[in-house]
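Dear Dr. H.,

I hope your travels went smoothly. While you were away I took the liberty of generating a structure for the chain from your last submission, since the lab meeting agenda had it listed for discussion. I wanted you to have the full record in hand beforehand rather than looking at slides cold. The sequence, exactly as received, is reproduced here:
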Amino acid sequence: METPQQPNAPDSQLLFAGLSINYEPSGPVLCACGCGTAVKWPGAKYSHGHHLRLYAFKRKPDPRVVKTCPQCTRSFVDKRNLPDRKYCSIKCSVVRHKKGENRNCRNCGREFYAVLNRIKSGRGIFCSNSCRLKNWNSTSLAKQCQGSYRNNAYKVYGRKCCRCGYDKYPRILVVHHVDGNRKNGLISNLEILCPNCHAEAHLKTGNKRLGPTARVS
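The corresponding predicted structure, in token form, is as follows:
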């Protein structure tokens, strides 16, 4: 009597007297990925994890891309394939985007790199803040620093009017720019004036901006 075979059942599973019997085929079953290793589990087509080697089972493509750095011309592997990454390192990126220039410090003479926006604003002169302060302390009486021309003028001329000698109330004295340019802070361009002399100086030069303490009737 022939043993009935269960329909739609694999060759390794037969039905005998109502019982399911599994058997291993003769010889090892090789992995279907083509690696040549034997399958350990019966009925399996691939070894453990070998199905991921096939293109149809790959969840994500390999993102690694070989690129060339435009700064040092060295080839590097971009593991994440970022579209914005063009340079092999941060150092090459910084060197590539430098738009300033190398200058010598006016105070110590050391060479330093000045950024473009500092050059445009006229601040790329000193290598550090300490050099800027040292130079300001040594030349503050000869050149104007921001907000210092009044103190420089008081140190040189004293608290009295340079024209009439008024010194009764020093708080009402003002510092006058001879050429009318407030950015020119040279000592030769400054003088201490009382409100009356300050108003006369502006009327003679045709400049009507007399300041808050001066009045003309």
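Two observations you may find useful: Residues 1-59 form one domain. DSSP finds five helices and eight strands in the chain.

With kind regards,
E. W.
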